[in-house]
Amino acid sequence: EAKENGRGTYRFYRTALTDAANTRLALEAKLRRGLEREEMVLHFQPLIGIGDRKLVGVEALLRWQDPTDGLVPPDRFIPLAEETGLIVPLGDWVLTTACRQLKAWRDDGIMIDMMAVNLSPRQFQLPDIAERIRDVLAETGLPPHCLEIEITESALMEQAEATLTKLAALKALGIRLAIDDFGTGYSSLAYLKRFPIDKLKVDKSFIADIPSNLADMEITAAIIGLAQNLNLEVLAEGVETTAQLDFLRGKGCDTAQGYLFARPSSAEDLIRTLVEGRAAGWTGPIGSGWHR
Ligand code: C2E
Ligand code: MG
Ligand code: MG
Ligand code: MG
């Protein structure tokens, strides 16, 4: 019986593997087609100053408007794009579209100071990534200081010596650099000190259970303190409650991002909310001179 059982198991796995591979191939082809057919869209989420509630910038977040499945979140297709290399053309599209959008807003008198764009590990590893970003800035006419590139902590620490050179090349463009999802990777503090970065973004997993989880509060406070000591800006991700905001303000955190202020939304909806000053739970000023 054991034999039969084994064979059955084998057959089961073979089918399951084939199905998984087919699903993956189908999704990959669909994603490639989606990029060609311009089904990708960017949503934008405000980054807010904790002290004055001003808009300090927006983060571009990728979505896929699939004709049959609707709006697909990035977690459902970015890992595959990263594996297959499709992230390279996809990432170029994101960079160009995000920079073009901020330039267009600024030309319209909507003076948002900064556009944050996520860079995947594979994009960061491209030998010519600095040239690519330089070309996008030249092509779109966005001033370099208006672009912030977010790189995850794990991507940076993978080959820290090579990273140092790469970051220096990016920084030389005049752009801003942020470490995304900080606290979830394994940072070497010795390298952190040497990286030419501007900002740490505290991962939202540490914010979620404030104020009930004391360990998360200690970790968050420690990251804020670390940023202050290294003269870096610090932003808390995933701020959903006023209790979280009060805690962060008490610890001296500079900026925040989260549903408490605004969810990511389309360009049109973002501008409508900003113009009408109706961002959820947020009635403060938008930023001096943000609109003519
Ligand atoms: P991320 O860069 O850490 O982006 C922040 C994520 O937190 C976004 O998820 C955002 O919608 C979500 N978020 C913001 N505020 C809150 C909140 O108050 N509560 C909760 N629960 N979540 C909040 P999203 O848009 O689903 O993106 C997920 C991840 O996908 C991003 O995490 C980023 O790693 C990746 N991603 C998104 N767009 C791009 C892109 O253009 N390129 C690359 N390489 N990765 C991207
Ligand atoms: Mg990010
Ligand atoms: Mg993040
Ligand atoms: Mg994240």
Per-chain topology:
Blueprint: H1 2-36, E1 40-49, E2 55-66, E3 70-72, H2 78-84, H3 87-107, E4 115-119, H4 121-125, H5 129-140, E5 147-152, H6 153-157, H7 160-171, E6 176-182, H8 189-194, E7 199-202, H9 204-207, H10 214-229, E8 233-236, H11 242-251, E9 255-256, H12 267-276
Parallel strand pairs: 2-4, 4-5, 5-6, 6-7, 7-8, 8-9
Antiparallel strand pairs: 1-2, 1-9, 2-3
Helix pairs in contact: 3-5
Ligand C2E is lined by residues 45, 61-62, 73-75, 78, 91, 94, 118, 120, 150, 180-181, 204, 237-240, 257-259, 264.
Descriptors:
alpha/beta; 292 residues; EAL domain-containing protein; binds magnesium ion; 8-stranded mixed barrel; disordered C terminus; 12 helices; binds ligand C2E
Polypeptide structure, described:
With 292 residues, the chain is α/β, with parallel strands linked by helices. Helix content is 49%, strand content 18%. The chain is built from twelve helices and nine strands. It has helices at residues 2-36, 78-84, 87-107, 121-125, 129-140, 153-157, 160-171, 189-194, 204-207, 214-229, 242-251, 267-276, and strands at 40-49, 55-66, 70-72, 115-119, 147-152, 176-182, 199-202, 233-236, 255-256. An eight-stranded mixed beta barrel has the order 1-2-4-5-6-7-8-9. A hairpin with a 3-residue loop joins strand 2 (55-66) and strand 3. Helix 3 (87-107) packs parallel to helix 5. It starts with a helix and ends in a 16-residue tail after the last helix. The relative contact order is 0.12. The structure holds ligand C2E and magnesium ion (3 copies). One magnesium ion (MG) is lined by residues 59, 118, 150, 180. Residues 24-278 form the EAL domain. It comes from Dongia sedimenti. This is EAL domain-containing protein.
